[in-house]
Amino acid sequence: MYYVYVIRSEVDGRFYVGISENPEKRLGQHNKGMKFSTKGYRPWKLFFTEEFESRMEARNREVYLKSGVGKEFIKRKWSGSSVE
Predict the structure, then answer these.
(1) Phi then psi for 7, rounded to 5 degrees?
(2) Would you kindly state where each structural domain of the chain is located, as residue ranges?
(3) Using alpha carbons only, how large is the chain's radius of gyration in Å?
(4) 21-68 per-position pLDDT tens digit
(5) CA-to-CA distance for 7 and 5, rounded, in angstroms?
(6) CA–CA gap between residue 31 and residue 22 (Å, rounded)
(7) Residue 83's pLDDT is what?
(8) Which distant-in-sequence residues (6+ apart) come within 8 Å of 34 by Cβ?
(9) Exposure string (b/e) for 27-58, b if CB count within 10 Å is 16 or more?
(10) What is the pLDDT of residue 3?
(11) Sign of CA dihedral 24, 29, 35, 38
(12) Does the structure show a pLDDT above 70 at 84?
């Protein structure tokens, strides 16, 4: 299984979208500063994940979530959540 995950910076509220076979482990790597693009915005918290059968399906969803429309979807999901 492959997962598309969205994490949120607890520093400035930005979101990051990625793919992993183990989102919890990947979150740990982000929080340890092992990814240059997210290192400066630690700590990160897992916002949501979506599960896919194939890497191609997950990649297509990742591309969508990184698009303008996908970013708006994430923002709407955030505004409707009870997590702050």
Answers:
(1) -115, 155
(2) 2-79
(3) 12
(4) 999 999 999 999 999 999 999 999 999 999 999 999 999 999 999 999
(5) 7
(6) 15
(7) 54
(8) none
(9) beebbeeeeeebeebeebeebbeeebeeeeeb
(10) 98
(11) positive
(12) no
> Would you place residue 80 in the very low, low, confident or very high pLDDT band (cuts 50, 70, 90)?
confident
- Does the pLDDT at position 15 exceed 80? yes
Q: Which fold has domain 2-79?
A: GIY-YIG endonuclease (3.40.1440)
CB 50 within 8 A of CB 59: no
- CA 30, 36, 61: angle at the middle one, nearest 5? 65
Q: Is 13 exposed, middle or buried (0-12, 13-18, 19+ CB in 10 A)?
A: exposed
